[in-house]
TrEMBL record:
It comes from Gloeocapsopsis dulcis AAB1 = 1H9. Residues 1-20 are annotated as: Disordered. This is Exopolyphosphatase-like protein. Residues 1-14 have a biased composition (Low complexity). InterPro entries: DHH_sf (IPR038763), Oligoribo/pAp-PDE_c-di-AMP_PDE (IPR051319).
Length: 422
């Protein structure tokens, strides 16, 4: 990819979207509208802007489910799943049950964001943590396929292990831009949609599963979807027609009190400490706030995006990038992990991060993004491992801190490109 940095920062915002994927639903003013897809067709929505793509994708997914009746699948999430991924995976599992397909929802990392923990605990969302080491020792022969939900595998330690076991990819459903060449029986990649939860809600509207307000599990799943949709659209501030109509449909079934309880979860002291560290270490260039927060435990990884959420609210700052070295002693894993948040409409986080950090030797980007947010993960490589002395740890951090800043400032301020370290 050869992107001009000035284009990224100053050009009009544009999304990379397939021409064959127009807006699916057009809004009209009607009293007490029925937001089901069939109803919208009946009341005169233009055919090309209603349910054609949704129905096409829904029917294709239904056929895939039919072909795999009574089988067992893995549903793989990114290592640190967010509400959008968790709720969408749960919906996939419930739909699959209609075809007697048993699904196990798995992720390799951890749930450290207080709202994610509350979501899983309060709804009973059936997601399991499989560390990479544990996955290698499991008998995976019972699984005939896997599904990638809200990810394309680039942020999962589990996908390579699953693929090495010969398990094919049955389905990929994601709202992020294409990250690489994936071979799957079914794929629904729609970067024009703000949340994967919106896509799955459209599957529900199209009839893959009929939600029943008398079924507790359906109520909790609808609540999770509403949270996922709300989370990935910045409390609906970035929502488009599809997202609003999906939210209108979910409003019939979700539990408002349960959703409020999830949203009221408090930040932990560790998260507050990382936010404090980001404030202390931040540097501001051309309205970008950039902060390295040093070393974090693997379980505290979600403090990084929360710190970015906080820094972007500073006066005269439109974009915040926060990063740190995340390590897991048990798994002997070490990564540079970062998050980007922006309010600048002309900055595309996906293009910005891909341009800043590039690709690995296999052509997979180290990061990407969506509207207003993005993230990246860079393996430490040869320098990963046990830190014997504080002096060594300091030197190691300075090397990565300087390199990350240099890559970011090359785009933020390409003329001066100053490097500041403490």
């Amino acid at each position: 990819m050869n992107l001009n940095s000035s284009h990224l920062l100053n050009s009009s915002y544009s999304q990379t979207e397939p021409k064959e994927e127009p807006h699916l639903i057009a809004a009209v003013e009607l009293p007490a509208p029925d937001t089901s897809l069939n109803a919208m067709s009946e009341i005169g929505y233009p055919a090309q802007r209603t349910n054609s793509l949704v129905m096409q994708k829904t029917e294709a997914l239904r056929q895939v489910f039919e072909q795999h009746r009574q089988e067992r699948q893995l549903v793989i999430l990114q290592d640190f799943p967010d509400p959008d991924a968790l709720s969408s995976a749960w919906t996939y599992q419930l739909i699959a049950q209609e075809y007697e397909i048993q699904c196990d929802i798995v992720y390799a990392g951890t749930l450290s964001h207080q709202e994610n923990i509350a979501l899983v605990k309060l709804t009973g969302l059936p997601a399991q943590r499989w560390t990479a080491q544990a996955a290698k020792s499991k008998d995976l022969s019972m699984y005939t396929g896997c599904a990638l939900i809200d990810t394309q595998g680039t942020t999962s330690q589990l996908l390579p292990i699953v693929q090495d076991s010969g398990i094919p990819i049955t389905a990929v459903v994601d709202h992020h831009s294409l990250q690489g060449d994936l071979k799957a029986e079914f794929a629904d990649l729609r970067p024009t949609v703000r949340a994967t939860a919106t896509i799955f809600t459209q599957y529900l509207q199209a009839g893959l599963l009929k939600l029943d307000s008398s079924v507790a599990q359906h109520i909790k799943c609808a609540t999770a979807l509403m949270h996922g949709l709300r989370s990935d659209t910045d409390r609906l501030m970035q929502a488009q027609e599809d997202d609003f109509l999906a939210a209108a449909y979910l409003s019939r079934f979700h539990d408002a009190q349960l959703l409020n309880a999830i949203l009221q979860a408090n930040r932990s002291k560790r998260v507050m400490d990382v936010i404090e560290r980001s404030l202390k270490n931040r540097m501001v260039q051309n309205n970008f706030s950039i902060a390295g927060v040093g070393y974090l435990r693997y379980d505290d990884r979600d403090a990084i995006p929360q710190a970015a959420d906080f820094l972007v609210t500073e006066e005269n700052v439109h974009t915040a990038v926060v990063y740190g070295i995340v390590h897991d002693d048990d798994e002997e894993l070490e990564l540079v992990i970062g998050s980007l948040r922006t309010t600048k409409l002309t900055l595309d986080p996906d293009e910005f991060i891909k341009e800043a950090f590039g690709q690995d030797s296999h052509g997979r980007f180290f990061g990407g993004g969506r509207t207003s947010a993005g993230g990246f993960e860079v393996p430490i490589g040869f320098l990963a491992g046990y830190i014997e002395t504080s002096d060594y740890a300091k030197k190691k951090w300075e090397v990565f801190d300087t390199q990350i800043k240099q890559k970011l400032l090359r785009l933020v301020n390409p003329k001066d490109n100053p490097i500041q370290t403490e």
